[in-house]
Q: What sequence folds into this?
């Protein structure tokens, strides 16, 4: 028997830092929160598109995809909303470990749920982006006609109508979409990422 036959090859574990070094940029979760129609999805996607264009490893965790797939078993009771956010947080954490810049766009109305997600991450990896827009303007936009349905009583526990939205008290980034264009909002997020040396 040759000597080599008794030698086991130990693969070294590839760390988050290794992946970041290979990518040439940091990884984080940009957690967009705000009322329905405030612009979370629009801005999260615009940010991800620009990241992709700049050669940065990105991914969008999109509400509908998650609700259809991973969280297809969850409805909208208080417990299920909390569980929905918890699972999304765990998935986001895996993506950050994989070295990506993630954008997520979920109303995530409860502070305690958002804080629990923040606690999953290391310092600086969880970036809360408060997409602020007056309810009247969200309702005027009503891109999915959800407010109309909620006002007619066809949707119960609708955030802003008959369920509360708890505003973030100290978000890393605040975007007022009644004042900024989508392009200006994207620039504000990029400015933050550049200042923190994430990109
Ligand atoms: P959310 O994901 O928060 O429910 P969406 O992004 O789906 O919201 O919808 C927001 C709607 O508001 C879109 O139709 C978008 O075109 C429109 N909109 C108008 N102005 C802005 C802005 N400055 N930023 C983001 N969205 C805007």
A:
């Amino acid at each position: 028997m040759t000597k080599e036959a008794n030698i086991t090859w130990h693969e070294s574990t590839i760390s988050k830092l290794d992946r970041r070094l290979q990518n040439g940029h940091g990884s984080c979760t940009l957690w967009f929160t705000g009322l329905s129609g405030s612009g979370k999805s629009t801005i999260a996607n615009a940010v991800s598109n620009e990241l992709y264009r700049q050669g940065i490893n990105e991914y969008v965790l999109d509400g509908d995809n998650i609700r259809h797939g991973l969280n297809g078993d969850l409805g909208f009771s208080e417990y299920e909303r909390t569980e929905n956010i918890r699972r999304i947080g765990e998935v986001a954490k895996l993506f950050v470990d994989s070295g990506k810049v993630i954008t997520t766009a979920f109303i995530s109305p409860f502070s305690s749920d958002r804080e629990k997600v923040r606690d999953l991450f290391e310092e600086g990896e969880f970036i809360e982006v408060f997409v602020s827009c007056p309810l009247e303007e969200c309702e005027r936009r009503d891109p999915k006609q959800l407010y109309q349905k909620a006002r007619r009583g066809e949707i119960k526990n609708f955030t802003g109508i008959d369920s509360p939205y708890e505003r973030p008290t100290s978000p890393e980034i605040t975007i007022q979409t009644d004042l900024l264009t989508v392009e200006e909002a994207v620039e504000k997020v990029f400015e933050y990422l550049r200042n923190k040396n994430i990109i």
